[in-house]
């Protein structure tokens, strides 16, 4: 296929609406053809804005002949059913993270894709397309800072479902660091411990913040402070410490104000402005892949295997949170379809 890719979108909430906006105005070679959301009014609104058709049956939308590729941005527990339907229809599918919230759900997706015999699934771990993270990876891979020793990560949201189960802080939020750390370092995480301070009052009973300490196979240590009810803004930090230097993400800010004897860099209040370029690049990369029979390699994009591993690691961290102890992690063998 070398023509325009017609995308079927499932989920028209915050992310679905943003993806529809990008596909319609900032990504070349794609259009949104149909949209489904259980909330019909939302689907209608986003469909109107992007010139798509609102549909009332998600499985028919996925199977529809006019739909070339499927984008899933519905809530976490609904991903599996839609990804499996896209694989059954033989269509490329970009699924927002997490691939599925349980390891068993991710396994069913791996089994279906392996039986299909070709990779169709991409997982929306968009940080792999962020210019800052790409530069960190380049610096490490080119030997600019020597061998990696420690990766410091901070992931803060102003507010995020106060009172949600404490495990969600890991499976829905820290899962980004679990994915991006193994991608950056190019090796697997083999041990996890989770520490919690006194919970923030704004978290409404959720254990938040949480401090994840992870160890990789070669002995690099990763610390992740994830604090999703931090109040003040949306912020993601990352510093990689190597044997001969360090490299750190800068927090992009459109302006710096100087007044009253100080400087102020503004922070966004959610992920969309912070990762705007990452979302755009992720979608462009996915659309380019869907248009060609053989997508360009190597690719930073996360496969179903990466989605499986992220959920596997998240579950190990939940176990570490619940037991208070270190949890040793041994991944199953990577199926042949996902060998590099
Ligand atoms: N990559 C990222 O940075 C990022 C950022 C935010 C959210 N996400 C992920 O994107 C997904 C959507 O998050 P959001 O922030 O847009 O949430 P949201 O609550 O704004 O939107 C979710 C939408 O899914 C719809 N929905 C619920 N059940 C459905 C079903 N069975 N079928 C179809 N639609 C259904 C809801 O009506 C809602 O409109 C989640 O999986 C989330 O984890 C990823
Ligand atoms: O679903 C969102 C999204 O993945 C964001 O990137 C993350 O910062 C939030 O914590 C999470 O709730």
From TrEMBL:
Q: Which GO terms describe its biological process?
A: inositol catabolic process
A GO molecular function annotation here is: inositol 2-dehydrogenase (NAD+) activity
Q: Which HAMAP family match?
A: IolG (MF_01671)
In terms of InterPro entries, this protein maps to: Gfo-Idh-MocA_inositol_DH, Gfo/Idh/MocA-like_OxRdtase_C, Gfo/Idh/MocA-like_OxRdtase_N, MI/DCI_dehydrogenase, NAD(P)-bd_dom_sf
Q: Which SUPFAM superfamilies match?
A: Glyceraldehyde-3-phosphate dehydrogenase-like, C-terminal domain, NAD(P)-binding Rossmann-fold domains
The Gfo/Idh/MocA-like oxidoreductase N-terminal domain extends over 6-124
Name the catalysed reactions: myo-inositol + NAD(+) = scyllo-inosose + NADH + H(+)
Identify its protein family. Answer: Belongs to the Gfo/Idh/MocA family.
Q: Gfo/Idh/MocA-like oxidoreductase C-terminal domain spans which residues?
A: 137-329
Supply the alphabetized keyword list: NAD, Oxidoreductase
State its Enzyme Commission number(s): 1.1.1.18
- Quote the Gene3D superfamilies the UniProt record gives: Dihydrodipicolinate Reductase, domain 2 (3.30.360.10), NAD(P)-binding Rossmann-like Domain (3.40.50.720)
Primary role = Involved in the oxidation of myo-inositol (MI) to 2-keto-myo-inositol (2KMI or 2-inosose).
Per the record, the gene is iolG
Whether Disulfide bond counts among this entry's keywords is: no
What's the protein called, per UniProt?
Inositol 2-dehydrogenase
Q: Which organism is it from?
A: Micromonospora endophytica
**Subunit text:** Homotetramer.
């Amino acid at each position: 296929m070398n023509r325009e890719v017609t995308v079927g979108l499932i989920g028209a909430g915050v992310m679905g609406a943003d993806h529809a906006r990008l596909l319609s105005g900032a990504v070349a070679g794609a259009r949104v053809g149909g949209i489904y959301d259980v909330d019909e009014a939302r689907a209608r609104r986003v469909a109107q804005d992007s010139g798509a058709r609102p549909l009332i049956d998600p499985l028919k939308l996925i199977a529809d002949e006019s739909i070339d590729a499927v984008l899933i941005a519905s809530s976490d527990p609904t991903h599996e059913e839609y990804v499996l339907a896209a694989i059954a229809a033989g269509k490329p599918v970009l699924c927002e993270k997490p691939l599925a919230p349980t390891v068993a759900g991710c396994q069913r997706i791996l089994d279906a894709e392996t039986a299909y015999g070709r990779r169709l699934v991409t997982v929306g771990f968009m940080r792999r397309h962020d210019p800052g993270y790409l530069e960190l990876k380049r610096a490490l891979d080119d030997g600019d800072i020597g061998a990696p020793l420690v990766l410091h990560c901070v992931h803060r949201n102003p507010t995020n479902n106060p009172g949600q189960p404490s495990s969600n802080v890991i499976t829905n939020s820290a899962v980004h660091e679990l994915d991006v750390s193994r991608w950056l370092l190019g090796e697997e995480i083999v041990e996890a411990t989770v520490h919690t301070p006194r919970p923030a009052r704004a978290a409404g009973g959720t254990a938040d913040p949480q401090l994840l300490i992870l160890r990789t196979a070669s002995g690099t240590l990763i610390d992740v402070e994830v604090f999703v009810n931090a109040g003040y803004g949306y912020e993601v930090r990352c510093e990689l410490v190597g044997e001969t230097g360090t490299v750190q993400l800068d927090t992009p800010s459109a302006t710096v104000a100087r007044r009253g004897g100080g400087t102020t860099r503004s922070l966004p209040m959610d992920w969309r402005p912070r990762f705007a370029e990452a979302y755009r690049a992720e979608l462009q990369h996915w659309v380019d892949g869907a248009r060609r029979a053989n997508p360009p390699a190597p690719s930073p994009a996360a496969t179903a295997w990466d989605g499986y591993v992220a959920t596997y690691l998240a579950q190990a961290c939940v176990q570490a949170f619940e037991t208070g102890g270190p949890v040793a992690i041994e991944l199953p063998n990577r199926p042949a379809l996902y060998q590099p």
